[in-house]
Amino acid sequence: MPYTSEDCLFCKIVAGTVPADVVHRDEHVVAFRDINPQAPTHVLVIPRRHVENLGALAEYPEELADVVALGASVAEEAGLEAGFRMVANAGELAGQTVFHAHLHVLGGRRMAWPPG
Ligand code: 5GP
Ligand code: ZN
After folding, report:
1. How buried is 68 (Cβ within 10 angstroms: 0-12 exposed, 13-18 middle, 19+ buried)?
2. pLDDT for 49-97, tens place per residue?
3. Does the pLDDT at position 1 exceed 90?
4. Mapping DSSP to helix (H, G, I), strand (E, B) and coil, where does residue 25 land?
5. What is the number of the ligand 1 atom nearest to the C-alpha of 9?
6. Mutation test of ligand 1: which of 30, 35, 38, 67 has the most ligand atoms closer than 8 Å to its C-beta?
7. pLDDT tens for each residue of 8-62
8. Cis peptide before 114 (omega within 30 of 0)
9. Closest ligand relative to 32 C-alpha
10. Which residues pair with 46 in a beta bridge?
11. For residue 28, how far is its CA from the centre of ligand 1 (angstroms)?
């Protein structure tokens, strides 16, 4: 699969052609605020590389590790020591709507379990 996909929204955010409230970007990963936040903190952490979902990123272990590590540091920066959730929806039935791998980092309120 090519590194970027032409008509992918998150590839456009990586490229900067679609604006986003970016909180971090580096060689492999970008983190930005979700446009429709589901908690006081709701940040999406994505690899620059276009793959369909987070599991598919396992083919690139260094990039996968960078996504998870950035998720943890976003939570720390946001002061979410008391608890936060990292979620990756895979597939339409799970509620995935953007088919570029992303990790949701949610926090700042009590989370329910099981998720809806
Ligand atoms: P999914 O439902 O695929 O797990 O998550 C996709 C997320 O992307 C949703 O939470 C949605 O609110 C967010 N999103 C969709 N379009 C945009 C956008 O243009 N900008 C930003 N920042 N987030 C978006
Ligand atoms: Zn993409």
Report:
1. middle
2. 999 999 999 999 999 999 999 999 999 999 999 999 999 999 999 999 9
3. no
4. strand
5. 19
6. 35
7. 999 999 999 999 999 999 999 999 999 999 999 999 999 999 999 999 999 999 9
8. yes
9. 1
10. 30
11. 19
As assigned by CATH, the class of the 9-107 domain is alpha beta
* Token pair recorded at residue 24: 């971090």
**Active-site residue set:** 102
Q: CA-CA distance, 8 to 32, in Å (whole number)?
A: 16
Residue 13's H or E segment, with its range, is: helix 9-15
Give the integer Cα–Cα distance in Å for 17 and 73: 26
d(CA 60, CA 18): 25
Which residue lies with its CA nearest to atom 18 of ligand 1?
A: 35
Size of the chain, expressed as the number of residues it contains: 116
Q: Which ligand has an atom closest to residue 93 CA?
A: 1
